[in-house]
Amino acid sequence: MAILSLIIPCYNESKRIDLMMNGLLDFDTKFNQAYEIIIVDDGSKDDSVKKIESELNGTFSILKNKTQLISQQNTGKGGALKHGIEAASGDFILTLDADMSALPSDILDWQKLNKNVLKSNEIFIGNRTDKNSKITALPFRRISGTIFNFFVKIFTSLELDDTQCGFKLYRSEIAKNVFSDLKTYGWAHDVEVLYKADLQGIKINEMPLTWKNVDDSHVNVFTDSFKMFWEVLKISIIIRFTETFISPFKK
User: Fold this and answer.
1) pTM of the entire structure?
2) CA atoms within 13 A on the CB side of 148
3) Residue 78 in 3-state DSSP?
4) How far apart are CA 41 and CA 81, in angstroms?
5) Superfamily holding 4-250
6) Are strands 204-207 and 168-171 parallel, antiparallel or unpaired?
7) Are 60 and 30 in contact (CB under 8 A)?
8) How far is 102 from 96, CA to CA, in rounded Å?
């Protein structure tokens, strides 16, 4: 039976640890296969780590033996995911956000829609623009996401409508491969890993999900969107150069 690894990057999430733990407990009661949880604290400056440890030793002790808590210096979300994926021992890897905007139990809905999600060599990613998705989010966030993905389609070969949703499912060897030499540790890392996968001929499937925008987001829609625009441009240049001039010689 396949083992699922849940990878959760965490940075200054003290106010939302209860959301994370309740989401994981809900998953534990519904998911009847083997799984592990890897929480990567990305150098939080608040008491996130202390609060997670307290919850695992108290109210949520049922999750303790399944949970690995990793602490690292701050690198960015991509760097935290890379560290967690390297530590994962599961056959499949599900990445998700600490605020539980999308609950890990949504994987059960994906299994109903596509029975191959925990068998396939393909990648499955959440698509908040899908007509079957149930989304609670501020309108300007939807608009900024649409604009961002417009530029992703211009600068890369990706034809995806929502590269930035944190809810993604990979076969373990695929995740470890596309994250192994990650160049972008910030918010735009999603574009890099999906672009590399696409160039390697790995199919990427967009799936509907239930998404609830949580207040106190770490993303500044205006300044971070501008940064991500330049990161996408940089990613497209680096990866095209690598695939054209370096990878052939390695092979």
Assistant:
1) 0.91
2) 26
3) helix
4) 10
5) Spore Coat Polysaccharide Biosynthesis Protein SpsA; Chain A (3.90.550.10)
6) unpaired
7) no
8) 7
Neighbours of 143 (CB within 10 A): 11
Query: β-pairing, 35-42 with 4-10?
Result: parallel
pLDDT 10s digits, 96-141 = 999 999 999 999 999 999 999 999 999 999 999 999 999 987 666 6
Cα(95)–Cα(107) distance, rounded to whole angstroms?
11
Burial of 89 (0-12, 13-18, 19+ CB in 10 A): exposed
Q: What are phi and psi of 123, to 5 degrees?
A: -110, 140
Nearest to 126 by CA among 150, 152, 145: 145
Q: Are strands 168-171 and 92-95 parallel, antiparallel or unpaired?
A: antiparallel
Domain residue ranges in the chain: 4-250
| 4-45 pLDDT, tens digit each | 999 999 999 999 999 999 999 999 999 999 999 999 999 999
Structure-block tokens of residue 128: 């908040």
CB 162 within 8 A of CB 125: yes
> Is residue 40 within a helix (H) or strand (E), and if so which, with residue range?
strand 35-42
Distance CA 173, CA 177 (A): 6
Which uninterrupted H or E stretch holds 209?
none
Please give the C-alpha separations between residue 243 and each of 46, 121, 192, 200, in angstroms, as whole numbers.
Answer: 41, 21, 13, 10
